[in-house]
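sanity check both lines:
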Amino acid sequence: MIDIPLSALEVAMVQTGTRAVDTLRDTAAFAQGLERLGYHRIWYAEHHHSPAIGAFPPVVLTAHSAALTSSIRLGSGGVLAPNHAPITLAEQFGTLAALHQGRIDLGIGRGPGTFDEVTARALRRGAGPATDGEYQGDVAAILSLLVDEVALGPLPEPWLLASSTAGAALAAELGLPIAIAHHIRPHNTLATLERYRAAFTPSRWCEQPRVLVCVETACAETEEEAAWRVGPMEVVKAGLLKGQSEIPFPTPAAAAVHPFTAEEREALDDFRARQAVGTPKTVVHRLTQLARETGADELMLTTPVYDLHDRIRSYELIKQYIGATTAP
């Protein structure tokens, strides 16, 4: 049974038939709901120019939710270093950590947060993709600035997001805790963790390897209902498999009649089998299995389903099942 902290990644899906401002409103209700359920932390992802995902800066969502909650940890999962000046990130998250002491995380990632090249260049003021050296330099600069220049008091907890051995090597070199994007590249998870643990160097941030694994999760009373809830995200993923990044986040009813090709269905089924979708028993068993396989210190669940109530209910069912099976 799971005996490690459970957390959440908020991707802020914009549902077909709603407005982005509705999604923005839901993020606060989501944070309050998960705090009541006893989840450890919520991170907000950085995305740009997508009809399916809101372009809401993680620092803003973190500040808003922190003002409306009292105990749950909050932060970025992640801010994307190539899109921001290191001093800006250090100042923003250093300020948040001073305002909400002991509750703020700074998860740092590399990708542009968009599939659109024009948007990616706009984010970088015309520059191309960051090189390995530039990214490594940015991460090191953020950490140094947090300590040496911002220093407002308690520091945010830094994490490095990774889905490859290259990211693992950087986290290990800097002595940072690592957040594994199993929900994006599950086939890379074990190799990434092996590289991280083998090369880890203790630092002021972390004395020993510390691992968070993020897994896509959808829990419902029946297997059929859980499959229904993940349908909209599967439509988006099928579009990405074909290089189509402009796919809206459809309703479950529309997703249920979407014409997937045999190849798409095979890829989606393989992906789902590596995540945690189903009844509470199925989901908790899969999360327990993943925790054992990876030796994770924490699991972060991301639940990109259509309705806010269904999302919160998914997290509630998991907590209820764990509580029921561990009660004396």
Q: What stands out?
A: The chain has twelve helices and nine strands. The two ends are 14 Å apart (CA to CA). The chain has a mean pLDDT of 94.
